[in-house]
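Lecture notes, structural biology module. Today: joint structure prediction for complexes of two components.
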Amino acid sequence: MNFPFTAIVGQEELKTALIINVIDPGIGGLLVMGEKGTAKSTAVRALAELLPELQVVRECRFNCEPDGVLCSVCLERKRESALLPTGKKMRVVELPLGITEDRLIGTLDIEHAIKHGEKRFEAGLLADANRNFLYVDEVNLLEDHIIDLLLDSAAMGVNTVEREGISFSHPARFILVGTMNPEEGDLRPQLLDRFGLCVQVRGLHEKGERIEILKRKAAFDDNPASFAGRWQKEQDDLARRIVAARKRLSDVTLDDNALETIVAITTALRLDGHRPDIVIMKAARALAAYRELPAVGGAEIRDAAQIALTHRQKRLPFEEPGSERIKLQKVLEEVAA
Amino acid sequence: MRFSEFIGQEEARLGLILNAVDPRCGGLLLVGPKGSGKSTLARLFRGALPPMTPFVELPLNVTEDSLLGGIDLEKTLKSGRRTLAPGILSRAHGGVVLVDDINLLSLDLLALLMEPLERGSELIEREGITQVRESRFMVVANMNPEEGDLSPHFTDRFGLCAVMETLSGKDERLAVMRLAAAQPHFEAGPDPAVGEKVAAAVKLLPKVEVSAEILDFLSETAQKNLSPGHRGEIFLFHAARAYAALQGVAKVEKEHVDRVANLVFAHRRLFLQEEEETTMEQEPPEQNDNEDQEQQDKQEQQPSPEKDETGETEQSPKDGEMDADPSPRESSVQEEIMEVGTPFKVRRFSFRKDRRKRHATGRRTKTRVKGRGGRYVKSLLHSSDRDIALDATLRACAPYQKARGREEQMIIEKDDIRFRQRERKMGHLAIFVVDGSGSMGAQRRMVETKGAIQSLLMDCYQKRDKVAMIVFRKDRAELVLPPTASVEMAAKRLAVLPVGGKTPLAAGLMETWRLVRQVSLRAPDTRFLVVLITDGRANQAISEQSPQQEISRLVRLLNEEERCDFIVIDTENKGNFLRADLALALARQLEADYYTTDALKAEYLSELVQVRSEK
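The predicted structure, tokenised, for the full assembly:
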């Protein structure tokens, strides 16, 4: 049993960033920067548990959505008979640091080939991750070519495998959550850019909060079921809110004023490419849906920009870390005024 | 999303459509920063092609046998005879191969991909199968130059190249967001309207005339664009004709040629233009071409302060010990090129040995061979590693299964075993950071300096190191030579290196740091030897801080790079009684080995000496 998501103390930015990624997976995942022991993986796991079941094609290795994009196997099956849906709990698939490329993207099923002399695709982690969370601890320490492969499929939502005589492709749409401690090394700017959002987490220093964390953790460890029971109402409420926000998402209005504000921010910071614009737009829209607002307002754009832009700004190597935040604040104030 | 819904990037879209009309346009390379829509546009292209056109993605995970094809396991088992399973290239016959981030693809695979392009056929000699098959496809690829270069050898194979920029117009950016808001997932759909336009042009194409006058104009245009070889002209011919057909005109006009010229020459020119610019810079307008050496010498001896072309006049250097030379020579922004002094055999520099395991591809540092890292690219018959390539082994034994009496399980014998070859990116990179400021022109210091660099380059060539060169002068530092294994190219760049202007030492150090970071993120095992050639008289800052503050911060940053060794070569004239030894101070800060140009040379008669003791 996981610690209830709603019982996590503090870390509001992290929680919100995760929730809006669930509301609109098109936001493109989340990079969490910060120290160890700050409830990063707990939060992801807890959120996955809280969410309602996914509708998937029964017995599909890739969790295909019955009415959505299908893998080659489901496409074939669909020709013969209707696909049967079934419910499946959302998962957090973990990508360990030492992973090899064949385990990540899938490979030739060697055992089957030796035993039966037939070629078969053995799915990798990206298959498990489809429509789930893909959690990469210390993403900056992953081997370079693994990151390339990971982001290659993350960008287009499809895993295309052309290796060892295998040619296969399946949907790979996942919410990528990476963590990194910037002191242990950088990520290439192009890779940073592929993460939709980025939040900083810190240990809480306020005494009252720290005591509250201790209390809750102790209560949970003593009797997880009873602790979870006490939080059930909050959990159900949040789940309902998320589901409702997902439904409402396409009805949230984005007027020209809002879009112009976004462009004003990204132009002032001189950012590369259109991803920053699109991510702020999507994040602001998901925030509005989550806050039960009919339209995206200035507050949503500001909040979205704060988590969408810190990792996309360029910093001269001798400028102090954190200077990008200050610059961003300045631009946000100017644009608001 | 449909092809025609894509916003902006006219040039790139035209490049694709021309290829759809006539694949002889030679494919398209999309170059642009992250998030400019390169991959999206390339995928939308499929919808503009006739419905059954093959459109094959070449992912970064591709292995050699998947690219070229190999034994078809199942069929071979059944028949007991080697049967070929087609690779990506065969599947793409008559269509498109799409490559994202082509500059990240391994060079071996890149060569295999590009090789059949001109021949129009594929020669297969693999796993006991010999075959020649027709293979015509076009490559649509994209790259972000921030992530690394693609050698001109490969870019030249692309018929067309379009540079994509982030859209700057507000309306366009709003439109991009609206489009993204309207669709939850990106999905490329067919675009019948564009398809029809293309189909009409394809029909008209054979009737399009190209007059003798236009042929003349084509070759003139190619010459004007300094296109080396004949590829440029040929692609220009096809592109112009396709464009005329697209316009519904049965005759190629000059304006058609002009419209497509940029697509044809963008990538061919890029490289040359750089050289041209440097060549232009070397000759100040007031000097005439055949000025002789004497006159040049005279000018050095009697330097006259001059105004910069940009109108910026010399300011007195900011305070600080690193910039203590207010001599008028510094203020001269006159530029000149000095010849390369006589090369000499240099002392031998060595990289420190380290304890990180790595597989050394160069010959300089001996290190232990790393285990099974890296990307599996192909299988081999023999290998010292015991890293078995099971897939290739199975294919190798497949033809013999019948003869060996297989019932269920495969029967594998020792001779069937194949091994994996993995690609490891690492090596040594020597970065030459050269002071190109006016003070280097004094007493023909640059001549000697160039001689020293030339000598070091030769040393690098022998050690199979890669080299890069950064020059700092005027108000900035420039990577004039991105990391390359071609020492020849480095020597060429060196020869045309101009001097003149102020000394932005900090900019030079920052560029160095950037390069080190960039390379080591891509190839974490790279070792660096930074050879800094300067007199240390920094007098141009890159931020609000003083040059000296900047330098000490950057030095700290550079010192944190543990795989980086430094050598400072001091070019100050030590005979001058006003010597400031600023470069020496810098060398101390950097914990660098320090030489004067003379000291470098002094060693040349003696045997090669290992100067750097093991630390």
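Point to remember: Chain A touches chain B through 64 residues (CB under 8 Å).
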